[in-house]
């Protein structure tokens, strides 16, 4: 009987505490997609890497053209010319693969740097919102959250208003 009364009291206290707890949720992917600082970072990366991307696309087209030319003229080429074309294609393909790998590595590194800076600003904004609006807990990247707990728009707006985000 005492255990039942104690359990009821504990659940009552826990239920009361849970009812008083203010919880928020932030969709980090949406912040990365929609926040002005994230959009600006993506444009910056596009600008930094567009020339190299175009060079790789041109290189891929050249490689494809050489391969098609070799296949088309394989019967009429001399053995020596065919070997020289194959060597040229292999050298270009090796160079293309190396440059493509370096491009991906550099792009991933820069994306991580830029998104880390955006995440740091978002975390500062979340903390400021939590303190100003007296949240007890704010979660990021939950499997599911009730939309009424979602404060992502507030975070995006805070980042929009943040002068540091504009830089």
UniProtKB/TrEMBL annotation:
Alphabetical list of Gene3D superfamilies matching this protein: Skp domain
Pfam families referenced in this protein's UniProt entry, alphabetically: OmpH
A single Gene Ontology CC term: cytosol
Protein name (database record): Outer membrane protein
Recorded family membership: Belongs to the skp family.
Domain of life: Bacteria
GO biological process: protein stabilization
Signal peptide: 1-19
Keyword Phosphoprotein set for record: no
Name of the gene this protein is made from: hlpA
Basic and acidic residues biased stretches: 79-93
Keywords: Signal
